[in-house]
Fold:
Amino acid sequence: MTAVLPSLAMALLCLLQAGAEVPVQPGFNSEKFAGTWHVVAAFSNCSDFLKMKDVMMSSITTISFTPEGDLDMNVIWPLPDRCQKVELLYHQNGQAGHYVAAQGQRDTRVVETDYSSYAVTYEILRSEHEFSIGMQLLTREQDVNPQLLEKFIELIPTMGLTKDMLAVLPKTDKCS
Structure:
């Protein structure tokens, strides 16, 4: 499982230096990817994320797919004072594993997954005020393998970001 992430880091670094797009998991299988995931770590240069990252906790994300191949994502974010529920519908963008939402303002890709324990997603957010990028480490269980987390952290500079943009999200039973 963790042996693949070093090659992912190198591939992303080479692609980004060349100005290429971030790749999608080859042969992405939506049936295997569907189900419950926990966001255990994330990094981003999004101003809202940076303001909230120190109080964020691990969220629960439930993923399903429409018959057309679109991704339906339900997220429950535990906040200090409440549980924030968000539902997003992403439309498939050419290939399975690449999705867009909100008139193209959110561009999300499943970069790597083994389907049974972890996934790495990449997202571009565009608004009239900001362009931001980020990545999330998702796991099927709230506990994260330390080696997997270390490999995820190694991806930060490949995105042109810094480690202070990282949030390792503590596990919680709030909002479960």
